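Quick one, T. Sequence first:
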Amino acid sequence: MAERKAATIGDVAREAGVSRQTVSNVVNSPSIVKESTRLKVQAAIEALGYSPNALARRLRTQRTSTIAVKLDPYSGGVSGVVLDRFVHALTESAAARGLRVLLYAARTLEEELRHLDELADAGEVDAIVLTGTSRGDRRAARLLERGVPFAAFGRPWGTDTAAHPWVDIDGAAGTRSATRHLLDRAGDRIAFLGWPEGSESGSDRERGWREAMGERTAPRLTAEDGVAEGQEAVKALLPNGIDGLVCVSDALAIGAHLAAVQAGRPELPIVGFDNTAAAEALGISSVEQLPERVAAGILEMLMGPEGNKVVAQEPKGLLVEPRLIIR
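Structure tokens:
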């Protein structure tokens, strides 16, 4: 017979029809919970055999000198190195402050939410760093509800009022700089190759191109991220349709470069985004995101300029301007 899985705080919350925070309050601070609610939660605890961890309760009021961040699944291909650089930079910067980094993996949003609840329940970390933020991010809402200190690599899209600290790359500034460079060097018809609608960071990068172009007109192309996709999207414009091209990623820029070579325009100026080793090897200019500055900014927001203890958090943000690398 299979061993019965131990009940979690989430199981108790569902059984009692309350939030996880209410269950946590019943376990740790029962005096602040209405009696009828407390009795309902205690009945669920007894029915499910839930056993709160005394060590976890102690850890809530003690420092662990540990921060957690998700390790994204390996995606391969050209792109995807920025978050790897960020995790390395965060680990190195944290170590310099006497802190450890705990990595957790999650392939879906629901899986990540479960991990966040487990980290909060166990008191294993002093703070959590989110990556890959989205509009109406449920992870941020969950951590705010649980009262867990956290900061995000990525802005709270869709709102001008932040509820938590965040640091992000100013993608619009990067593509604006790239577009102005090509306007000065190549001519007025500087096209843009972006992702399909739905990408917040992609829209931000497109905005920088539009701002730099002003009243000038040039094609705005769309492709899923990938070398082959970029090559297919651009070849219809060549050989003489554009003076230059700004791309939302290095993968698309490499595809565009291959299309230009096949069309007899290997000199077509192209700028990618991410400054990957592949773009460098092919001599393609690119916008470098500087995730090391993001990591340093996040730790400063969480713990001050030099400290290693979470301080009172201000719900503010910081945009890091990327660097244009010309080749």
